[in-house]
Amino acid sequence: MSKQSMTGAPVCTWVAVTDASGRTRMEARWTTVEAVATQAA
Fold first, then answer.
1. What whole-number distance in Å separates Cα of residue 17 and Cα of residue 28?
2. pLDDT of 1-41, one tens digit each?
3. Angle (CA) 29 11 2, round 5°
4. In angstroms, how far is the first alpha carbon of the chain from the final one?
C-alpha cells in the first residue's frame, strides 16, 4: 500500500484571536492543504 497525499482537502486549524476588548479566544479556520503548506514554508 502506498502513501498518497490529499490535495485540496480542507484542514481545520485553531488560532488565537484577540478582540477589541483585549479578550483572547480560539477560532477555527478552514484552509486547503496547499495553503497550509505555503504558510509553513
1. 10
2. 455 555 678 899 999 999 999 999 999 999 887 655 555 55
3. 170
4. 29
